[in-house]
Amino acid sequence: MYNGFWLFNAIKLKENPNIMQMVRYNCALTVDCVIFCKEGVVLIKRKNPPFQGDYALPGGFVDEDETAEEACIRETFEETGLTIKDPQLAGVYSSPGRDPRGRTVSIAFFAKADNQSLQAGDDAAEATVISDWQNISLAFDHKKIIRDTLKRHQ
Amino acid sequence: MYNGFWLFNAIKLKENPNIMQMVRYNCALTVDCVIFCKEGVVLIKRKNPPFQGDYALPGGFVDEDETAEEACIRETFEETGLTIKDPQLAGVYSSPGRDPRGRTVSIAFFAKADNQSLQAGDDAAEATVISDWQNISLAFDHKKIIRDTLKRHQ
User: Fold this and answer.
1) What does the pLDDT read at residue A2?
2) CB-based contact, A68 to chain B, within 8 Å
């Protein structure tokens, strides 16, 4: 679907080898945020496909004018009402095929928050703390993300 | 440049709200590999713009059929001849504007290797171990990546 642009780019480069080739986008970058509290993990219920109705970590796509950390803070607030500070890198999840919509790579962060202000945002049907996350269906590879983060941080 | 496809996608979705929206690629994902050895850090001399002629960490773009870890192992071998095992996540570098060619986000890894087999590959003019990396010009934010990794791992 991008052939027209890249052909144009290739011709420009051939005509003038000193100009710089533009980068070719190769994935959709997302963030996911693992927030543990005394009662469990903060999860949202997905409002839209894929995995509609399943629980998932708060997160979403990185905007073009923000870093992954900034996206994590923004998405967590939008989906849960929680303000997190200083999210810590927990892992990078890049297996091809982890998202049925296409190639997404997720940067997972670990954060602490005061869950008193928990409330569902626009993209989430429900934001809640789940203690029994090991035994419910979670979207994407989010169960693995939580397990990995738990091993590393607690 | 992608408008045609996304318009088509939007029309399909309007006609059939049950189909899943494809993800929109939002960055070029790259990997960089920090390899310390007794004498310094393994660096390559860049053959192509941007930062042509500057030293840089071995690395490159993630292919669509591989994870970031696999890309790190492949690119390090291609550019330096070194075989690394089990690269460890060192950081994610996602500041908008860190690459003059467009939005690139780099997953940095930390690895150990036997530098006896060091040799420049196709994309690199030179692969070498530099002890004085603090005082030379490095491409992109690679000096920061090395400093951050050094703080965390040594």
Assistant:
1) 47
2) yes
